[in-house]
Amino acid sequence: MSDPKRAGDGPVAVRVEAGRSYWWCACGLSARQPFCDGSHRGTEFRPVAFVAERDEELWLCQCKRTRHAPRCDGSHRGT
Question: Span 37-63, mean pLDDT?
Answer without folding.
Answer: 97
